[in-house]
Structures are given as structure tokens and as C-alpha cells.
Amino acid sequence: MLNNAELGAKMNNLTHLNAKGEANMVDVTEKAVTSRQAIAEAFIEMSGQTLAMVMDGSHAKGDVLAVARIAGIQAAKKCSDLIPLCHPLMLTKVKVEFESQPEFNRIRIITLCKLAGQTGVEMEALTAASVAALTLFDMCKAVDKAMVISGIKVMEKQGGKSGDWTRSDVTETSA
Asked: Which of 21, 29, 98, 111 is 20 to 30 Å apart from 48, CA to CA?
């Protein structure tokens, strides 16, 4: 159990909490406008039959990847409506890509969000990856109820006060 001093020190590291421990939106007014970018990924595992249907476009609902791509882009743009303390951002680029990984019966979803602004775009990239995965689930649930979404994470970020960061503890094929 943390004492009050330890709890206060920990809370000082959490930028979305004020000195009283209350949730608040971070003031980015004085931060410099810089080019910022984040890449995130997610995985959706499914049966081999479902994966083949999605990848060859034979799913009864049509091009499910196109729908998931649009959903991911829309989600990134709506991130501040979904995550209470996120700033509304003027994104300049949102990219959603899909990589078939038949050896794992899954699709890897890779998202990129970019802007020139005062705060990062990690949450937007994560939201895009999450919603693209959820959309794939929704589009395919009638033929495969056992799908699993996993491995939602930031892979890298560029720009801002803290500089560039790349995930080094995960390989491309891990979930």
C-alpha cells in the first residue's frame, strides 16, 4: 500500500491527473507544434476458412477489408469523442493496412496517424486499429463466432517533446 507521499509522487507522473488526483485534460497551449506520427497494430484470429473468405473477397457481405479500413479511419478522426481526455486533433494522414498471416490464421492490422500539432497521435492510431479489428469481427461473426482480437499496441511514435520511440520487445509475428 502506498502512503500519501508515494501516491502523490506517482500521480505527478500521470499527466491526466491534477494535484488532487482529479481527472483533467492536459493543457498543451504552450507546447510547440511539431510533426508527429504513431503506428499501432492489432490482430484478429479466425478460422482458416474465414481468413480465406476475407482475403479472396468471397464473403457474402462483400469487401470486408474495405469496410474495416473506412471504419478505422473514421475511428481515428473520432478518437476524442470516445476517449474522454483526448484532445480533438486535426489529423493530416490516417492509413489502415491489412496483412494476411495464414500461418497464424489471422490478419494483422497496421495503422498510421500523422499530424502537425501540440500533442501525440498514439491514441488515434490505437483507436483506428481497435475499431478496424472490431469491424472485421462484426462483418465475419455470422460465419465465425470464435474470432479473437488481441495484441493492440503502439509500435512506434515520432515527434514531440519525448522524441521518437520504437517498440523493441515485440516481433512482427507476436500477438
From this structure: 111
pLDDT tens by residue, 106-154? 999 999 999 998 888 999 999 999 999 999 999 999 999 999 999 999 9
Question: Among 151, 152, 159, which residue's Cα sits nearest to residue 121?
Answer: 159
Task: Show Cβ contacts of residue 40 under 8 Å, excluding neighbours closer than 6 positions.
Answer: 110, 111, 122, 125, 126, 128, 129, 152, 153, 154, 155
Domains in the chain, number: 2
Write down the catalytic residue from 27, 63, 138, 169. 138
The closest of 156, 160, 151 to 129, measured between CA atoms, is 151
Spatial separation of the C-alpha atoms in residues 103 and 45, rounded to whole Å: 11
The more confident residue out of 63 and 23 is: 63
Q: pTM for this one?
A: 0.85
2 domain residue, yes or no: yes
Assess whether 76 and 140 both reside in one domain.
yes
pLDDT in tens, 62-108: 899 999 999 999 999 999 999 988 989 999 999 999 999 999 999 99
Q: Is residue 58 part of a domain?
A: yes
Say whether 138 is catalytic: yes
Q: Tell me which amino acid residue 83 is.
A: I
Q: Do 7 and 41 fall into the same domain?
A: no
**Residue 139 lies in domain:** 31-166
